[in-house]
């Protein structure tokens, strides 16, 4: 997995750095006195990732991030490696990927599809419709901060951990024996308040912190000393696919030591026999927005580092922890524990399939919240395919935003676990896409409004990439609009709704202009399109009007109309949207009892009936068009589809199936899916989702699915314990959100509800329907108030 091996880093670093340490002062022969070492608290199995050995590969390292900067911490012994990222650092520069030949050739592709000449349509689309360049720009690594330690002998009692509650990694080890032994501690965190990655090196005896430190990068860059105690790495990002690399970047580092000496040179920094050393790292690029790269990263990093360096370490740590816990502590889950929870994290993952470990599920749930907080904060970029963590210059699928499922899945848990702030970067990206997508709508489709296909990058290109079997899908922007509505629906902020209403309206306008009448019917369908990445029996994925498109459009049109009604806007436009929605083909049940993926009953003849995507079940989840009580025939067909598809899927594929089985109300099957997701085939030792390779969406899908098993919020209806598995006989969940500004706590015992509390965070009274099994209770909660529910004589009632 590693593009830079440990040996390569060690050799490159040693040659440049070890020569700088020749003038080290000699230690006195008498052993220095030892300061007491505060014992590390016993790891909380639901809050801590911990290991008895350093990371040997990237997917064993521990992630820290502040939404903009990220680092993977390896916890090495003689060498510590921090692999670094900054969320705007992509290859290339501003560009427009729309093919100038697309508009003229689009009518013929449409006609070929309507004639059933799908392979001819694919050939023409591949030649004339696809984006130029065909590939989008890859997310980049900045490189590595590498620390070498030369004086560690006979190391023992090694331990490293990531505390999710404080967002601090700690590596501790003992060097030497008897009176000459010493305890060395390294702590790393990424501060959101101060926009720096902080590393503290300490020991329990004075004068024992000695290290050589440098910055290594695969990028075209220059490293220079930055004063007597700092380094500055500057360069320009790479070119890819004919797009010139023009994005400048800077990484700036400063060492603040107590005691000893610090010397900086053009190759790195030497820390000599300090009592303690704090290393501050920050980074920036020239990116201001997708069409402006005029920022000065050297100046930005200098200002950031000067401000952070003015704070003592204790203040940096306290401010970081307080800001992290402001978000992280809003929600708490307890599923109980077993003896398996006492094992190191990597051993728990290896044992996940045969041995039940409910605290591992809780840890995974908490880790998903941790990753979202650390990779998506206001003012930054949305979490991409790998969040913000990537060590390669050419990562899998460019580590950008795939918007035919993966980006959406990243944000499935956000509203549920009260991390609405983390959605703001996604909102910002949608505002950008509504601009670039308007050009694509005009220049490729001859339409108004805006649209996006199945991928985008930091330059917000929306032309169809990769090839027609994957890229010629016009629904990416429409699906993302669902997240705008969800953000409104959970918070009911009309100011926000007014802000994003033009995006909803523009997305709907595009489809009013491009939907076509299906020959021989009055139905309106998309053309060209596809059911994401799945080939139908006629040899390609290209088709007209697949089920997922119709389902997404039903949602898009409904939320656009609803938003207009709430805001009192555009009555004539709303009428057009409503009329178009009524002409979308309905969901259909095929000959095998399945929910049809296409207009034609092709499912059982498709080459991959066990395909990883379950696109046509969008109507079940994340939408709510198909429900157990509202559409029983269609829900049975959806279940049949899941049975046919099977449970052998990618990490994110399991994440989607987990949510679907929860919506079906089958807690034991959902739990079986979760155990597959947590097993060693789909989860790496550091709990990153194994697609494989790593994609972060499975982590987020798993977190959302666990909430769906315990609480489902649809409109103003709340269902308690809808898919509680037998394996979770006792537990509690505190602080989750429900639609309409609600917060919910609940606890259960012996598989039965013990109590629930529903709070109204809004300024007006709110009425919900709360369901437990077949029991339904209407609950009106005053503004800022709370109502409790429990079982009375075996029935749900107000307490």
TrEMBL record:
InterPro entries recorded: 6-hairpin_glycosidase_sf (IPR008928), 6hp_glycosidase-like_sf (IPR012341), AFCA-like_C (IPR049053), Alpha-L-fucosidase (IPR016518), GH95_cat (IPR054363), GH95_N_dom (IPR027414), TAT_signal (IPR006311)
Domain (Glycosyl hydrolase family 95 N-terminal): residue spans on this chain: 49-289
Residues annotated as domain Glycosyl hydrolase family 95 catalytic: 313-710
Origin superkingdom: Bacteria
Keywords assigned: Signal
Residue intervals of the Alpha fucosidase A-like C-terminal domain: 712-767
SUPFAM superfamilies, sorted: Six-hairpin glycosidases (SSF48208)
Residues making up the signal peptide according to the UniProt record: 1-28
GO biological process assignments: carbohydrate metabolic process
Gene3D superfamilies listed in its UniProt record: 1.50.10.10
GO molecular function: alpha-L-fucosidase activity
Protein name, UniProt field: Uncharacterized protein
Taxonomic lineage from the root: Bacteria, Pseudomonadati, Pseudomonadota, Alphaproteobacteria, Rhodospirillales
């Amino acid at each position: 997995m590693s593009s830079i091996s440990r040996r390569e880093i060690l050799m490159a670093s040693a040659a440049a750095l070890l020569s700088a340490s020749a003038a080290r002062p000699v230690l006195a022969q008498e052993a220095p006195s030892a300061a007491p070492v505060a014992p590390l608290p016993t790891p909380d199995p639901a809050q801590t990732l911990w290991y008895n050995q350093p990371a040997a590969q990237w997917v064993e390292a521990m992630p820290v991030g502040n939404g903009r900067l990220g680092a993977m911490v390896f916890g090495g012994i003689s060498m510590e490696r921090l692999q670094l990222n900054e969320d705007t650092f992509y290859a290339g520069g501003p560009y427009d990927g729309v093919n100038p030949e697309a508009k003229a050739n689009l009518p013929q592709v449409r006609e070929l599809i309507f004639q059933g000449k799908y392979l001819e349509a694919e050939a023409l689309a591949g030649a004339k419709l696809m984006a130029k360049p065909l590939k989008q720009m890859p997310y980049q690594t900045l490189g590595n901060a590498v620390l070498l330690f030369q004086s560690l002998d006979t190391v023992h009692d090694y331990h490293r951990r990531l505390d999710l509650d404080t967002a601090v990694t700690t590596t501790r080890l003992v060097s030497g024996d008897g009176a000459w032994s010493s305890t060395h501690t390294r702590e790393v965190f990424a501060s959101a308040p101060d926009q720096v990655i902080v590393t503290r090196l300490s020991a329990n005896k004075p004068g024992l912190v000695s290290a050589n430190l440098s910055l290594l990068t695969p990028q075209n860059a220059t490293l220079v000393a930055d004063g007597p105690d700092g380094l500055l790495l500057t360069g320009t990002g790479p070119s890819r696919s004919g797009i010139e690399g023009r994005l400048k970047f800077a990484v700036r580092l400063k060492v603040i030591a107590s005691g000893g000496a610090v010397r900086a040179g053009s190759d790195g920094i030497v820390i000599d026999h300090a009592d303690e050393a704090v290393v501050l790292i920050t980074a920036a690029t020239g990116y201001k927005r997708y069409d402006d790269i005029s920022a000065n990263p050297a100046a930005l990093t200098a200002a950031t580092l000067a401000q952070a360096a003015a704070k003592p370490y204790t203040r940096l740590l306290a401010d970081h922890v307080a800001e992290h816990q402001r978000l992280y502590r809003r929600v708490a889950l307890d599923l109980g524990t077993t003896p398996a929870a006492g094992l190191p994290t990597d051993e728990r993952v290896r044992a996940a399939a045969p041995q039940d470990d409910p605290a591992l599920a809780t840890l995974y749930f908490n880790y998903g919240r941790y990753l979202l907080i650390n990779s998506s904060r206001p003012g930054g970029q949305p979490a991409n395919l790998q969040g913000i963590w990537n060590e390669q210059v050419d990562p899998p699928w460019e580590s950008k935003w795939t918007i035919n499922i993966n980006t959406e899945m990243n944000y499935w848990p956000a509203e549920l676990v009260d991390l609405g702030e983390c959605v703001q970067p996604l909102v910002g990206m949608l505002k950008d896409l509504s601009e670039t997508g308007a050009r694509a709508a005009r220049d490729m489709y001859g339409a108004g409004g805006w649209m996006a296909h199945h991928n985008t990058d930091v330059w917000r290109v929306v032309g169809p990439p990769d090839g027609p079997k994957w890229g010629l899908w016009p629904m990416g922007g429409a699906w993302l609009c669902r997240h705008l509505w969800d953000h409104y629906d959970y918070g009911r902020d009309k100011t926000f709704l007014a802000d994003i209403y033009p995006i909803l309206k523009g997305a709907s306008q595009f489809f009013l202009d491009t939907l076509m009448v299906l020959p021989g019917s009055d139905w309106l369908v998309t053309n060209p399109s596809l059911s994401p990445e799945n080939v139908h029996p006629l040899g390609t994925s290209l088709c007209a009007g697949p089920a997922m498109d119709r389902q997404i459009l039903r949602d898009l049109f409904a939320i656009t109309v609803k938003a207009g009604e709430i805001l009192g806007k555009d009555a004539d436009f709303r009428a057009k949207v409503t009329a178009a929605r009524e002409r979308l083909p309905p969901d259909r049940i095929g000959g095998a009892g399945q929910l049809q993926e296409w207009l034609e009953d092709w499912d059982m003849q498709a080459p991959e009936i066990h395909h990883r995507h379950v696109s046509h079940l969008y109507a079940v989840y994340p939408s709510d068009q198909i429900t157990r009580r509202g559409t029983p025939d269609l829900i049975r067909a959806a279940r049949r589809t899941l049975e046919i598809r099977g449970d052998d899927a990618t990490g994110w594929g399991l994440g989607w199936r987990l949510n679907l089985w929860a919506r079906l109300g089958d807690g034991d099957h959902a739990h079986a899916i979760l155990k597959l997701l947590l097993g060693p085939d789909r989860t790496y030792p550091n709990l990153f989702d194994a697609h494989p390779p790593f994609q972060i969406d499975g982590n987020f899908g798993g977190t959302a699915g666990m909430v769906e098993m315990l609480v489902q919020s649809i409109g103003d209806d709340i269902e308690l314990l809808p898919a509680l598995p037998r394996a979770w006989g006792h537990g509690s969940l505190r602080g989750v959100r429900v639609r309409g500004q609600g917060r919910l706590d609940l606890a259960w015992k012996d598989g039965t509800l013990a109590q629930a509390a529903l709070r109204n965070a809004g300024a007006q009274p709110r009425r919900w329907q709360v369901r437990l099994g077949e029991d339904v209770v209407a609950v009106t909660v005053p503004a800022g108030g709370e109502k409790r529910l429990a079982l009375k004589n075996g029935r749900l009632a107000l307490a």
